[in-house]
Amino acid sequence: MTEHKLNPAEAQALAEATAEAMFSRDRAAQALGIKIVRVQPGASLLTMAVRGDMVNGHHICHGGMIFSLADTAFAYACNSYNKTTVASACHIDFLAPAKEGETLEAEAVEQSAAGRTGVYDITVRTTHGKTIALFRGKSYRISGEVIAGLQQAD
Prior knowledge:
The protein is of the alpha+beta class.
C-alpha cells in the first residue's frame, strides 16, 4: 500500500491543524500566555509576554520561563507532521536578560529530520530583535498521532 505524499498546501494545512489540536490540550502553554504566530512543516513562531509572576529574584525573566517558551516552539515544529514526537535532549544558552513587560518570540527551525529523530534550533528574541537565548532540541518520534486517524507517510 502506497501512502499519499502531501503537496505543500496539504502539508501546511496539516501543520496548522496539528498545532490547533495540540494547543487545545496544552494547558502549560495556555497558562504561560504563549501564542502561536505561525506554524509550518518543521517550523514555528510563538510569542510570550513576560509577566510580573515570571521574573526571578534579580527582577529578570526566570530562565525556566524562557526555556519553556523555546521548548514549546520546538514541540510545535517537530509535531507539525502529525506524528507524535517528544524531546530526547535539549540545550539552551542564555545570552541576555529579558525584562518584565517585554514580549519574547521563539522561532523554531528544523535542521534535520531522518527516521525517528530530528534536530531543531530555536532562537528566542525580543520583538525588537534582541537575541535572548539559543536553544537546540533533539526529537524522537514515538508511536501515535497528534490528530488520531490522519497517519501520514514516513
